[in-house]
Amino acid sequence: MEGRPTPESMLEALDSAKRTALALIEEALAEEDPAGVLESIRLRFLGKKGEVSLILKSMGSLSAEARPAVGQAANATRDAIESALARAKDTAEGAALDRELRAPPIDVSLPGRPVELGRRHPVSRTGEEVVRVFERMGFKVASGPEIEGDFYNFEALNIPAEHPARDMQDTFYLASGHPVAATLHDGTRGPEPGEVLLRTHTSPVQVRSMLRSPPPIRIVCPGKVYRRDSDLTHTPMFHQIEGLWVDRQVTMADLKGTLQLFATSFFGKDTRVRLRPSYFQFTEPSAEVDVSCTLCGGSGASRSEMEGHEDAGQGNGSIAGKPPQTGPCKTCSGTGWLEILGAGMVDPAVFEAVGYDPDTWSGFAFGMGIDRVAMLRYRIDDLRMLFENDARFLDQFP
Ligand code: PHE
After folding, report:
1. Which of 27, 66, 164, 169 has its CA 20 to 30 Å from the CA of residue 132?
2. 156: closest CA among 201, 219, 220?
3. In the predicted model, is pLDDT for residue 5 greater than 80?
4. Contact (CB, 8 A) for 243 and 135
5. Residue 286 Cα: closest atom of ligand 1
6. Is the Cα torsion angle 209, 210, 215, 220 positive or negative in sign?
């Protein structure tokens, strides 16, 4: 458009813009992916500074009579280009979809590169299996903090400050920290935790459970415990599971029956249990509990000595027909028994510390080392191997 635009020249320009645009759109459809080209056509004609827009803007210079006709023509041109663009876009999208559907399907047959699945640690597996046996007897699992307060780990368990029994559980004390006070069953705060330490046994979980809920109670508490100890049979961290059963008239017979049922469920039906007198501050009377040796079946004879005999290695513990012993069993050092746990009747002083009436309630508690049970189960002779995380060692367990 040269000079002052006339209505005629503008109508002509609109007509030419429309024809050019439609031709370009037609051409664009031949492209593989016309979206970009279509957008540039839109900008060239309909954009702010596009050809049609400029014509519309210059209408101000027309006479009032000429304006409507040119305006209408400009709008019609814009509409025509817009709808041609929309149709072209539809067509292009349809074509793209068509191409995709006709293309050969994605080949998913390339073999994967599998990552070998890990496995449960022998200690975790053993702990879970022990828990499962007690769950079948109606025990619920309870847990508590590993960073404990003196009150829950010692004081409430009838082990006062300066008591020599504390030496047996050589304790890691922490310089600072805030062990939480127990929450009582009415939602209020339990006794102050006192000095901060790593729990030396899982018994504080029993204290917390009794503070939290009134009797009766039947729980097992598996978890990590810590003592300053390190040699062939001790690591500074190890695993315990403790049990607690409080009800009316619970007796030592219930304790023995429960442990006997555990032993046969866990180690095999011929396993026998024996209680020996012992001492713990929180139980009275107390006992060390042995099971008949899982390796020699209680005979005390080494396996190699038993091989070749008819009832060898069946773990039936029968003394009659015992093969001649020329060497002691290594697992039980020839005694025929394996010590696996400590137990006893809950001391009335513990009940008093947690607000249970010792005249109404009685109960038993027991505690065993999960690691030791795992060693017996898998015949591992060095406890430390369990915690070195050597995959060559761990891979040997199913
Ligand atoms: N808490 C004891 C310990 O760790 C084990 C135990 C628990 C003994 C319950 C008796 C009763 O040595």
Report:
1. 169
2. 201
3. no
4. no
5. 10
6. positive
> How far apart are alpha carbons 295 and 300 in whole angstroms?
9
Q: Using CA atoms, how far apart are residues 137 and 133, in angstroms rounded to an integer?
A: 7
Q: Which structure tokens are listed for 156?
A: 């409430």
Q: Which tens digits make up the pLDDT trace of 241-264?
A: 999 999 999 999 999 999 999 999
Using DSSP's 3-state secondary structure scheme, residue 78 falls into: helix
Show the domains of the chain with their CATH numbers: 7-101 (no CATH), 122-141+217-293+336-394 (3.30.930.10)
Report whether 255 contacts 343 (CB < 8 A). Answer: yes
* Span from the CA of 287 to the centroid of ligand 1 (angstroms): 10
| Whether the CB of 367 sits within 6 Å of ligand 1 | yes
Identify residue 137 by its one-letter amino acid code: M
Lookup: tokens for 332? 């039980």
* CA proximity to 358, closest of 258, 210, 255, 212: 210
- The DSSP bridge partners found for residue 368 are 241, 341
Q: What angle do CA 214, 134, 241 make, to 5 degrees?
A: 80
User: 């049990």: which residue's tokens?
Assistant: 243
- CA dist 129 and 124 (Å) reads 9
Q: How far, in Å, from the CA of 255 to the mean position of ligand 1? A: 14
The overall average pLDDT reported for the chain is: 88
**Ligand 1 proximity of 283 Cβ (cutoff 6 Å):** yes
List the Cα angle 270/234/381 in 5-degree steps: 50
Q: Which atom of ligand 1 is nearest to the CA of 206?
A: 9
Is ligand 1 within 6 A of the CB of residue 148? no
pLDDT at residue 1, as a whole number? 45
Residue 222: is the preceding peptide bond cis (ω within 30°)?
Answer: no
Number of Cβ atoms within 10 Å of the Cβ of 11: 17
Strand order in the sheet with 237-247: 140-141, 217-226, 237-247, 362-369, 337-346, 283-292, 273-280
The residues, any chain, with a CB within 8 Å of residue 142's CB and separated by 6 or more, are 205, 206, 208, 209, 219, 220, 221
Ligand 1 center to 248 CA (angstroms) = 22
Ligand 1: does its nearest atom lie under 6 Å from the Cβ of 201? yes
| Burial tier of 131 (Cβ tally within 10 Å: 0-12, 13-18, 19+) | middle
Position 314 pLDDT exceeds 60: no
Mutate to test the pocket of ligand 1, among 168, 171, 203 (most ligand atoms within 8 A of CB): 203
